[in-house]
Amino acid sequence: MTSTSTVAPPGAAFPRVRRPRRSGPANRRHGSVVPYAFVAPAFLLLLAFGVLPILVAAVVSTTNMNISGLADSSNIRFIGAANYTRLVHDPEFWHALSNTGLFAVVGVPSILAASLAVALLLHRSDSRFARALRAFYFMPAITAIVAVALVWGYLYNSQFGLFNYLLSVVGISPVPWLSSPTVAKFSVALVAIWRATGLNIIIFLAALQGIPKEYLEAAAIDGANERQRTLRITIPLLRFAIFFVTITTVINWLQFFDEPYVLTQGGPVGATTSISLYIFQQGFRYNQFGFASAGSLVLFVIIAVVTLVQLRLRRRDVD
Predict the structure, then answer these.
(1) Residue 281: which CATH number?
(2) Which of 70, 189, 261, 297 has the fewest CB atoms within 10 Å, measured from its CB?
């Protein structure tokens, strides 16, 4: 009886190892193109909806463009810096700018304090009621401004509003919430504060969940009470979140538009006219597109300067 044996060829028992390809010039060029291909869609969107409108507004701001210029381009003339000169000498522009500054001074600290305080309270409990409250506080951020204006307009009604009814119960005379120039500023700002607080609460809650519990437990073992742990551990570790909320809130208040436009149309007597609403009125009420474009460029510069100052201050804070 004969037996046949198959002899494996040399090296068959071991897997063939492929040598890595050498990174030649062609491979390096291919590898450098791929990241740009992924970034290209976002870059094109930013270019189309961010940079290009700014350039168009800069060009339009040097012309006398109005509603007739849209129908016949021959009516458009180059006037240089005349719109900017007119803007500087316009008292309504400075009045709107001062209103915007007042809104920012009142709104930014109020939103920061309210959202941080509520976030700290909600972070202490993980019950179903606390989770329901998180959704409740976030609802104003996703509610349409028209619906918000209808509700708050009813609350502010001087004759049938809920606020004046509650004041009448305790013997206080009705308050002209939206008809008094002084009171209307704070009434409109209150609606904006209420809308913006919900989103910032969620941001602070996310930052609070990222703080290691070991820090707080070690401080508690060392004898620190809850107030000391909050002031010396929790809030310092929230510096980046506080900075982010501050810079976004300042930018939003400099672009303050929705609440005064829907609730008061900038009244009474221009008391609630913000710089954004002023630009809108010049462009779409008085059909002065060139003048409105000049105002929008000035607002863009103001926001850029404020943002750069805040970023500069942030760099000095070393974590």
Answers:
(1) 1.10.3720.10
(2) 70
Q: How many residues does the chain have?
A: 319
| Within-domain flag for 32 | no
Count: domains in the chain: 1
Which pTM value belongs to this model?
Answer: 0.83
Is 28 among the domain residues? no
User: How many Å apart are CA 225 and CA 207, to the nearest integer?
Assistant: 21
